[in-house]
Structures are given as structure tokens and as C-alpha cells.
Amino acid sequence: MDPIPPLRQSLSVCRISLRTPVYSKTHPIPRFLPLSQQTRRLASTSPDPAPPNAPPENSSKQPPFTLTPSQRTYLSRALRVNQAGELAATLIYAAQTPPLTRSNPHLRPLMKHMYDQEANHFATFNELCAKHRVRPTVMYPVWQVAATVLGWSTGLMGREAAMACTEAVETEIGGHYNEQVREILGWLEGEGGGVGGEGKGADGGRRELEQLVQTLRRIRDEELEHLDHAVENDAKEARPYDLLVNVVRLGCRAAIKISQRV
């Protein structure tokens, strides 16, 4: 038999291709399906349902997170205390700087650096309190006066006393932030009773807490940097060192407890 001429061969291929149904490249039709099932398959663009025993798509993801009432209370108190503490820190540095730099002008850049960081911390917690509708402590005016008096008086006492005050304040504040970081990390790891909750925005809540932990760590590290600066500038040489540091630390602890409640 003579071979099919090239023109007839190409026409035959075209006829075959026209009779062949077009199907999705993503979900090809098995050749063994009957024509009626192929038609139904072509009419649908949805992928095949997962087999009954297949694991859920998000099985590798972390479970959703919602706060318990006690956790919400803890966070509200923490943000309120942090706001009050950073307010006090900015006022202490603002009051210390004029008398301190008058007799120690070389400390002016350091005092400005520490003040600027505290002002940034204060702005951060102002935003967080406004975002989460956390009211300021009612002791706000009292802490304003107390912080200003503490800063001004230790500034007048000299460089060593001012730095001892900074050492005492930053020691308490650094420990306070450490406690908050540990507490929130415990929640995220499932130790606080909030993991596995249901509800809209649960994953968003987890991300917000992770961001808050990062913020607290950054601020804690900057506070501890201030402590190092204080020690480098002869905080230990203050007289009476123990009395001054212990009184300031006791005052900080009392202010934290009061601001948590009122």
C-alpha cells in the first residue's frame, strides 16, 4: 500500500485532534473515565477532594491563639505599668540633665542619648495603650512629680549619685521587662492556657504577641544598656551608695504594684 501523502496525513491528524476533547493541564482527565464522567469533570474547575485519611492542609501550622480573661488583665496591667515607667524615666533624665551637665559637660551626649531612647519607649507604650484601649494609671500626676523631684535631687548630688539612681531604676525596669517576656512566651508555647482557642483573628493575635515580645526585648536591652553606662560612670562610687540604690529600687517596686491596680 502506498504511504499517505503528506497533505492527507496532516489533514488526518487535524481531524483526530479536533475530535479529541481539551482538558485542564492542572487536572488532566484519566483516559479510563467514561465520556459522561469526562464531561462532568470538564464542567468543574475545583480540584479533587482530599482523601478521607489525608491530613488537613494547616496541620503543620501552629494552633490558633486567643487570650483568656486573666491573660487580658495581665497585658492591660503590663502596658499601663510600662507606660508609667517610661514616663518616669523621661522625666528623671530631663530633670537630671541641667544640673549634671553643668558640672560634667562631657556627659551631655550620653544624657541626650538615654533621654531620646526613653522618649521613644514612652511613645511606643502610648501607642500600644491607645491601640488596646488601656487606661493610664490614675497615679500619673503623682509619678510626674515624684520622677521630676528624684531626677533633680540626684542631679544636684553629683555624677555618682545620678548614675546610681539610673542603675537602680534600670535594674528594676530590666527585671520587670524580663518577667513580661517570660510570661508571654509561656502563653505562646501553650503553658498559659490560651493556645488552641477558636475565633476570628486568632492567628493575628499570635502575631501581635510575638511582635510585642520583640518590642519588649528591644526596650529591655536598651534599658540594660543605660545600666551599663551608669556603672561605667562611677555609679558604685555614690555615697551613701547602698542607701540610695535601695530606696530608689524600693520606690520603683512600689510604683509598679500601685500602677498595676489603679
From TrEMBL:
What InterPro entries does the record tag this protein with? Ferritin-like_SF (IPR009078), Ubq_synth_Coq7 (IPR011566)
Reaction catalysed?
a 5-methoxy-2-methyl-3-(all-trans-polyprenyl)benzene-1,4-diol + AH2 + O2 = a 3-demethylubiquinol + A + H2O
Q: Which UniProt keywords apply?
A: Iron, Membrane, Metal-binding, Mitochondrion, Mitochondrion inner membrane, Monooxygenase, Oxidoreductase, Ubiquinone biosynthesis
Q: In which pathway does it act?
A: Cofactor biosynthesis; ubiquinone biosynthesis
Provide the E.C. number(s) assigned to this enzyme.
1.14.99.60
Q: Which residues bind Fe cation 2?
A: 118, 170, 223, 226
GO biological process terms, alphabetically, are: ubiquinone biosynthetic process
Give me the residues that bind Fe cation 1, please: 86, 118, 121, 223
Principal localization reads mitochondrion
GO CC list? extrinsic component of mitochondrial inner membrane
Cofactor(s) needed by this chain: Fe cation
> What membrane topology does this protein have?
Peripheral membrane protein
Q: How is the cofactor bound?
A: Binds 2 iron ions per subunit.
- Give this protein's Gene Ontology molecular function annotations: 3-demethoxyubiquinol 3-hydroxylase activity; metal ion binding; oxidoreductase activity, acting on paired donors, with incorporation or reduction of molecular oxygen, NAD(P)H as one donor, and incorporation of one atom of oxygen
Q: Which PANTHER family match?
A: 5-DEMETHOXYUBIQUINONE HYDROXYLASE, MITOCHONDRIAL, COENZYME Q10 BIOSYNTHESIS PROTEIN 7
- Would you identify the family this protein belongs to, as annotated? Belongs to the COQ7 family.
Q: What is this protein called?
A: 5-demethoxyubiquinone hydroxylase, mitochondrial
Task: Please report the organism this UniProt entry assigns to the protein.
Answer: Paracoccidioides lutzii (strain ATCC MYA-826 / Pb01) (Paracoccidioides brasiliensis)
